[in-house]
Automatic annotation (TrEMBL):
Classification via SUPFAM superfamilies: NAD(P)-binding Rossmann-fold domains (SSF51735)
Pfam families linked: Epimerase
Upper lineage: Bacteria, Pseudomonadati, Pseudomonadota, Gammaproteobacteria, Vibrionales
Family matches, as CDD domains: UDP_G4E_4_SDR_e
Residues spanning the membrane: none
PANTHER family per the UniProt record, alphabetical: DTDP-D-GLUCOSE 4,6-DEHYDRATASE-RELATED
Annotated ranges, domain NAD-dependent epimerase/dehydratase: 4-223
Pathway noted in the entry: Bacterial outer membrane biogenesis; LPS O-antigen biosynthesis
Name of the molecule in the record: Nucleoside-diphosphate-sugar epimerase
Entry similarity comment: Belongs to the NAD(P)-dependent epimerase/dehydratase family.
Length: 314
């Protein structure tokens, strides 16, 4: 049984991943977190100096799954957002990987971001794993710089590195923009989003956890970079329609022209929201499907239904 150490286990992804791995009993899971409460945990605070090499070695950890990160913030008010992202997402990631090498860890799985590939795709032309130019967004750049360093560490050390780039992740306890759309969909009021024909890639929490789990042991995953998604790209109108159906709400989607909505959002100073609501952002996941013979086990509809069902319990 492989021993797997997971960072960010109190977060949205890390918590779900530990639950899946523990439930399946495929591996022995060690949670790496700030506050240790029992023997299956290891102390790790990425915002300060840390040294976990000896403990990783003593516990004979085979794989480190690095989920922890300074999350993307739409309106970041930090004095230097890039510097703050780099501290955790780049520098701490590199240091953790180096300590993993020193401890004899065989594989390091890094949860990066599809934002590394860009913020927009041309219609019917999904983005692939190749990065044509470094991202300008501070969060995405910090992740990209970590990817480059990890690739170098893998080449120099022999520790296998797997890089996974998810797009927007949704599921139980999702927050931020997706949570806002969920709230809108159940209001029962008319919404002006009935004529949006864009396409955006998403991935459910369950599908992302499934692919990470596969990458723990699959030999072909070694030193690969993978874009992942539900493989069912949806328009904003389709997403809202699915949410409304799952809630059983009476919300009406009114087909207002997108051009008018863009002008309106620009007037109120929200052009970035307009891009996320109306723009295309698709990712090509053929590489992981062919290399690992992976297909998302849960459909987009199932993912939305589970997310909504969980929110009703709150």
């Amino acid at each position: 049984m492989k021993k797997v150490a997971v960072t960010g286990t109190t977060g949205f992804l890390g918590k779900a991943l530990v639950h899946l791995l523990t439930e399946n009993q495929q591996v022995e899971v060690i949670s790496m977190c700030r506050n240790v409460s029992h023997s299956s945990e290891m102390k790790l605070d990425l915002s300060s100096h840390f040294d976990v090499a000896q403990e990783l070695h003593q516990r004979q950890v085979d794989v480190v799954i690095h989920c922890a990160a300074r999350a993307h913030i739409l309106d970041d008010d930090a004095k230097s957002p890039l510097e703050e992202y780099r501290k955790v997402n780049t520098s701490a990631t590199i240091e953790l990987a180096k300590q993993a090498v020193a401890a004899g860890v065989k594989r390091f799985i890094f949860i990066s971001s599809a934002k590394v590939n860009g913020e927009v795709s041309a219609a019917s032309h999904p983005l692939s794993e190749t990065v044509l130019e470094a991202p300008t967004d501070p969060y995405a750049l910090s992740k990209y710089e970590a990817e480059l360093a990890l690739t170098q560490i893998a080449n120099e050390s022999g520790m296998e590195v797997v890089i996974i780039r998810p797009p927007l992740v949704y599921g139980p306890e999702v927050k931020a923009n997706f949570a806002a759309l969920m709230k809108l969909s159940r209001l029962g009021l008319p919404l002006p989003f009935g004529a949006i024909n864009n396409k955006r890639s998403l991935i459910s929490l369950d599908n992302l956890c499934d692919v990470i789990s596969l990458c723990i042991t699959h030999p072909a995953a070694a030193n690969q970079t993978f874009l992942v998604s539900d493989d069912e790209d949806a328009s904003t109108t389709q997403l809202l329609t699915e949410l409304i159906k799952a809630y059983g709400a009476r919300t009406l989607l009114v087909p207002i022209p997108v051009a008018f909505l863009k002008i309106l959002l620009k007037i109120v100073g929200k052009p970035m929201i307009a891009e996320r609501l109306f723009g295309n952002l698709q990712f090509d996941i053929r590489h992981i499907k062919q290399t690992l013979n992976w297909a998302p086990p849960y459909s987009f509809e199932q993912g939305i239904a589970k997310t909504v069902k969980d929110s009703k319990k709150k």
